[in-house]
Amino acid sequence: MKPVAVRNIPRANPDTIAGLAGMGVATVHEAAGREGLLKPYIRPIYPGARIAGSAVTILTQPGDNWMIHVAIELCQPGDILVVACTADNTDGMFGDLLATSAKARGAAGVVTDTGVRDVRDLEAMGFPVWAREISSKGTVKNTLGSVNIPVVCAGQLVNPGDVVVADDDGVVVVRRQRADAVLEAGRKREANEEDKRQQLADGVLGLDIYEMRSRLEAEGLVYLDSLDELEQSQS
Amino acid sequence: MKPVAVRNIPRANPDTIAGLAGMGVATVHEAAGREGLLKPYIRPIYPGARIAGSAVTILTQPGDNWMIHVAIELCQPGDILVVACTADNTDGMFGDLLATSAKARGAAGVVTDTGVRDVRDLEAMGFPVWAREISSKGTVKNTLGSVNIPVVCAGQLVNPGDVVVADDDGVVVVRRQRADAVLEAGRKREANEEDKRQQLADGVLGLDIYEMRSRLEAEGLVYLDSLDELEQSQS
Amino acid sequence: MKPVAVRNIPRANPDTIAGLAGMGVATVHEAAGREGLLKPYIRPIYPGARIAGSAVTILTQPGDNWMIHVAIELCQPGDILVVACTADNTDGMFGDLLATSAKARGAAGVVTDTGVRDVRDLEAMGFPVWAREISSKGTVKNTLGSVNIPVVCAGQLVNPGDVVVADDDGVVVVRRQRADAVLEAGRKREANEEDKRQQLADGVLGLDIYEMRSRLEAEGLVYLDSLDELEQSQS
Amino acid sequence: MKPVAVRNIPRANPDTIAGLAGMGVATVHEAAGREGLLKPYIRPIYPGARIAGSAVTILTQPGDNWMIHVAIELCQPGDILVVACTADNTDGMFGDLLATSAKARGAAGVVTDTGVRDVRDLEAMGFPVWAREISSKGTVKNTLGSVNIPVVCAGQLVNPGDVVVADDDGVVVVRRQRADAVLEAGRKREANEEDKRQQLADGVLGLDIYEMRSRLEAEGLVYLDSLDELEQSQS
Amino acid sequence: MKPVAVRNIPRANPDTIAGLAGMGVATVHEAAGREGLLKPYIRPIYPGARIAGSAVTILTQPGDNWMIHVAIELCQPGDILVVACTADNTDGMFGDLLATSAKARGAAGVVTDTGVRDVRDLEAMGFPVWAREISSKGTVKNTLGSVNIPVVCAGQLVNPGDVVVADDDGVVVVRRQRADAVLEAGRKREANEEDKRQQLADGVLGLDIYEMRSRLEAEGLVYLDSLDELEQSQS
Amino acid sequence: MKPVAVRNIPRANPDTIAGLAGMGVATVHEAAGREGLLKPYIRPIYPGARIAGSAVTILTQPGDNWMIHVAIELCQPGDILVVACTADNTDGMFGDLLATSAKARGAAGVVTDTGVRDVRDLEAMGFPVWAREISSKGTVKNTLGSVNIPVVCAGQLVNPGDVVVADDDGVVVVRRQRADAVLEAGRKREANEEDKRQQLADGVLGLDIYEMRSRLEAEGLVYLDSLDELEQSQS
Fold it and tell me: Which residue from F minimizes the CA distance to C3?
């Protein structure tokens, strides 16, 4: 593909994005129909951050972070930089200088399918990054990639403007067009879960709440009384 | 194997279990004759927890956490759920709802050769989990496995009722029948180590405490005075 | 190679070492011309430590930590033990007893291409370790290796007396002979970065600070105004 | 997402597909602008096969191959089944029975981001498969996925009807709409390469053919005459 | 555990073992109720071998193959050496000398959760090995392990005398006590499959043979006619 | 480090190199005192090749094969290109065009800690490559590295002019200065092994040839007569 940078991308409603941030990754992933979860090797560099934002996507070359500079100019406040690479690469493509710049432009954080460095500084400045590795390995600025094209990051397709949600559980991406529907589904799910959580906290079993006993029996689960019975059943 | 759930399992003496919890994984592993250590990819989701308990074992299918619901009913206070899977799988089989239920039934924690999710909530409720991965990926409840059969979890055979010890160093399993003997061996080891620790803190060398010098010489270790000598010895 | 232990090694100037410790891994790695970074699978067992010291190198056999005892005698205050192994191995070759001994002899920390155990105790005593894995698996003392020979640790050649710098970003090794030059280069870099950091914090773009726009254009980067334009450009 | 199966998909021109098959993966990948390469962990189960075909995409659940049965009905002669999974999974989702069925319906082969089994039989029947693992682990037919929706397989987005090319080098996917253009670009590339290959075979250097010497010098490459000079340059 | 070597172990009926060898791994694994499959990282060092035999189990220490010598004395013709290790280790614990010895004593092959070397020689002498890695790394004979105790090899419990079946698909272990029943189940399965294979070869769909259509509908699979419909259904 | 290319390197005696090639990797590794083995993830792209040659070393940047062009000019007949990279990278840095060029200049083969492509063509032209991955991913020629400097390739230090030996077992590097001594040690080892091989083939046990029985007893190995005894010994 020819290297391009797209200046303007559509974004979801800020209130929707804020609502999704509040829910967290696990709930949003469920509410989205279990779509959009990045592979679990993407981890936060420090615990406790929970953000959501519009994806500004970046396709980099291995060992080269040039395009991140291009992308920062195209960021709007609240956006999340989503960095993909044309090959598996753990180089530290993002560090304290780029974070200073991204933060100054209002970026909310970074999700990168590469390495990151200066993690102590990044935590000190409260700029959250989710990455596949922590590495001081420096990068060059020699080969073009693209900004704001669809990319695959950690096994998921991310389109420019999709909503990215990230917390201690990982990262999920929601198609921009579905963001409102997912928020609504998430709210229903939360309401629904609250009641179950209370019952479970009171000691009621999931077997009973979800009426699983008859299905377990129909599928053939056999209860035995002891390990002796188990041994007999296998000989 | 036919899917079964065994209701009653033998358990070790509660005092023995408490004693093993106090020792921690490294000491228990040594005291057990260096048996029973789960592979080190199993890590705690937050630092600082140290528990021991009787194993309630669960064999799950990939992407399916149905059997965990079955297992929670069979838990007794202080038990540890040990989740194995018929295939390598990192899905988030355990999260805040199941933790709420397990905690309400008195479970002390979970060791799972799969993923876990809602880690922020789990830390907040003080319910420790050791897992191979953190992942929001949801699971279904469609295919039977078994509860309280011998399973292989992270490379170790775990029988129902075996004692599981888990802390920041990882997870070790002790055969129920050997638990008392291991506790006793651990206490001797601790007493023995205390003296050595004091000597080492005073600057006495392990070479001298363990009388290694003659064996090193017998095996052929040669001391050289400088890197120059090293270079000469190699040409 | 015949197993040897070299008693005396050259060391860099203590002030130089202290200066490198203050800079941290990412800066030192850059100042060294991007040489000497250990692979990123080497991670600190607890956050926040930042040290530098002269490498006392150890070549161990898998499952055998005998040579670490030999090395501790040869340590001087401020040295860092650098443990390599003749095979990939994650056994817990270093734990609280060895740490007690190493600390008593003045060692500043450990970098090991193997496992480590007793991490809770090590954090409590403030003895930092960078390792490839946390594992309680014990080791034997049966097979000789060597101390203070050149080793490859996590993909990097480390000579006895080279300066090792370690922090939350990982570990970098600097040839002893180059340590002064690297410190000087690092100081220039820091001075140079400070100005850029301020500009970036003020919202000036890297594109402008580094004068990238003309090079981007020369290389062929095309700016598009919208995703619609992108779609048209690809059909 | 709701589980769906799309019956009819657009396909590229059969002559185009045949042309791409003849070129092989490396050339097609270059001709496509270095887009669309699946991660290299996807390997052929036996050497020597080289195919291209229209992608019939399948999204499966871990441990469950139900959707492959649904997909085989929707295959047309020459199609390639492309199997993705909602989680990393190495179960043997495809074996000799499914291969017999797929072959009877005219499928040209399978690319699967999961395991495969019966590899001896598959080679004997000449039905090529590219997979991430070989595993006898059986699967169930309990949970729905989808057929002929866009999927991410081994890190690449694959749309139904995209052209998949696979050989000993791996697998590349070409957007259906670009297939003709890629074929044309590949032919130009082949013609261009033939001349270079001949020159290279005659001993002409790439440095001269590609006129690299001046650029190397401009970038700062320094030629030294000996290792002694190298040592002097570094001290 | 104390190091022991058990001289005499029970073995399954030779005809049963021969029958299981003829079936191959995938069929035996199914016939055994999908139990006993070793993790798929265990691969044959050359294609085409298919064997079964009684397990002579060996627990080694990392980097040490001493116990294999002990085990060879305890082998009977047709046995398979099953090598486990107390830690993940890829050293070449088995090579042409040990293979010459094992073959002279009638061993049928080796399954090892470690490395193997001299693979060209082993193929030339027709002595099959399944291993996790190929590595020339030599081993020592310094630390005891055990022979003929239950071990976990590549994630599976293997008891001395259990039947091990290995081919191009991998390795499966069958409890000795169940071997006759598994053979019988396998024969039924083969007979049953033959009919299905013929139907599938004739182009009958699995959907019809296994009567899946109604269940697919009941579970909610929706057929769409085109990708346009798909797009509409998602917006 | 400044990018350099060293034109002239010392080489070992051609007869020595030929002798080492004949021995193969496992024997050379032993004869060298078990030094110099590259990590086992480096595998040949086709079976059966066995070569030795002088190392022309190349340090590349991730995704960039520019320096390989520089190196080919500096090759002499019989040399082996040894490719290291400043980061873990699996891109296909070497393919049929470069192989055509390297072969025309007399290179004997390639060992690369990166990916390789066009493997079918390379096998057809009989140009052997050992690599960490097979990948069609193309590379650029934008960033300088170095040629003929010491590099770490797959965990081993390789100096320019060191002797590299490669076969189906992997790759080993021998210091140039030690090549003659290693050849001689290897010949002694082969002579010594031949006698043992014959004895082993006649059914004599390693336990007796190597006189291990007394050492086993001294170390504490206990022979038991049956699994019943084993069970009793553990309770």
Answer: F33
Of A52, A57, A56, give the one whose Cα is nearest residue A15: A52
F-chain CB neighbours of E10 within 8 Å are 227
For A116, the token pair is 């990151």
Contact F87 A142 (CB under 8 A): no
Asked if E86's CB is within 8 angstroms of C89's CB, the reply is no
Report the alpha-carbon distance of residue C96 to residue C105 in Å, rounded: 14
Nearest to D34 among A86, A150, A152 (CB): A86
* Token couple for B43: 């890590």
| Exposure class string for C197-207: b at 16+ Cβ within 10 A, else e | bebbeeeebbb
Both tokens assigned to C98: 């060895």
Determine whether the interchain pair F39/C150 forms a contact, defined as Cβ–Cβ distance below 8 Å. no
Dihedral sign of CA atoms D119, D123, D126, D132 in order: positive
d(CA C148, CA C133): 23
Locate the chain E residue with the closest alpha carbon to F230.
Answer: E6
Question: How buried is residue F207: exposed, middle or buried, by Cβ count under 10 Å (0-12/13-18/19+)?
Answer: middle
How far is the alpha carbon of A131 from chain E, nearest alpha carbon, in Å?
27
The verdict on a CB contact (< 8 Å) between F140 and A87 is no
* pLDDT single digits (tens) B197-227: 999 999 999 999 999 999 999 999 999 999 9
CA distance B143 to B69: 13
Nearest by Cα to D21 from D128, D154, D104, D99: D128
DSSP string, B86-155: SS----B---HHHHHHHHHTT--EEEEEEEE--HHHHHHTT--EEEEEE-----B--S--EESS-EEETT
Q: Return the structure tokens found at D218.
A: 């401009």
Cβ-contact A205, A190 below 8 angstroms? no
DSSP string computed for E3-63? -EEE-------HHHHHHHHHH-HHHHHHHTTS--BPPTT-EESSTT--EEEEEEEEEEBTT
**Is residue E158 a contact partner of residue E9, using CB atoms and an 8 Å limit?**
no
Q: How far apart are CA E108 and CA E91, in angstroms?
A: 22
Distance CA B20, CA B10 (A): 17
Nearest to A86 by CA among D40, B42, C114: D40
β-pairing verdict for F151-153 and F80-85: unpaired
Between CA C231 and CA A48 the distance in angstroms is 38
The residue of chain D with its CA nearest to that of A219 is D142
- CA dist D65 and D84 (Å) reads 11
Pairing of strands A80-85, E151-153: unpaired
**Range from A172-181, C146-155, F96-105, F224-233 carrying the lowest mean pLDDT:** F224-233
Q: Is the ipTM of this complex over 0.90?
A: yes
Place of tokens 């229209």: D54
The whole-angstrom separation of Cα A80 and Cα A111 is: 7
D22: CB partners within 8 A, 6+ apart: none
**How far A142 CA lies from chain B's nearest CA (Å)?**
35
Q: Residue C179 burial by CB count (10 A; 0-12/13-18/19+): exposed, middle or buried?
A: buried
* Tens digit of each residue's pLDDT (9 = 90 or more) over B134-193: 999 999 999 999 999 999 999 999 999 999 999 999 999 999 999 999 999 999 999 989
Residue of D nearest to F133 (CA): D40
Token pair in block for residue B197: 């620790």
SS3 A117: coil
Phi-psi domain of B91 (left: phi exceeds 0; alpha: psi -120 through 50; beta: other): beta
DSSP code of residue B37: B
Q: What is the pTM of this model?
A: 0.96
Give the N- to C-terminal CA distance of chain B in Å, as an integer. Answer: 63
User: How far does CA F102 lie from the centroid of its chain?
Assistant: 19
Min CA distance, D18 vs chain E (Å)?
24
